Fold this protein.
Amino acid sequence: YQEMITHLAMMSHPDPRKILVIGGGDGGVLREIVKHPSVEKAVLCDIDGVVAEVSKKFLPEMAVGYTSDKVEEHIDNGLIFIKKRQNYYDVIITDSSDPEGPAKALFEKPYFKDCYDALTDGGVITTQGSENFWLNNNFIAKLKKDCKEVFPVVEWAWTSVPTYPSGSIGFLVGTKDKNRNVKKPLRTLPQEEEDKLFKYYNKETHSASFILPTFARKVIGSV
């Protein structure tokens, strides 16, 4: 899922230079971000520094992104950290836990507004969009509705992850550009380069991730 939550946003922006990750302390999203040559700075803010320490020690293939000199790491509350800069980031990726306990606020309208304010014109967000359409259709629809009250364009995508409940997880993808279609990648790579850089993501999976089965489309797609 780290490829999808990252590249759905990155490939929906014409020139992503400054990126913010809220959560994602394991470093997997950072690993994917720094694959983009346009990136000048990748800022990560996680509330739990132990996550990064453990990942660097035991999951070096996932934490490899931390070795990039483009990465800036902060141990802080993302809800507070995101308010520190406005009109600064091109892409914001929220790689959080489920909408319970401390992470609940990352799924609410005030946080989406803070993301909007922190983004440059045409900026893009992706966020963990609850679990999946097998379990949480009504919650996903409300989440999408709340986000659409802030961003002019919001879509819900999903990907297959066998270790997650019911084998899939979803993402909200939003942009400040009312004319942009995030369902189609704004930038693409030749297949040879895709095959080299990614294990899951490609231009086809980007578009396909927004296709919903009929029962889910009636609830989520109608928002």
Q: What stands out?
A: The longest strand covers residues 119-128. Residues 137-148 form the longest helix (12 residues). DSSP finds ten helices and seven strands in the chain.
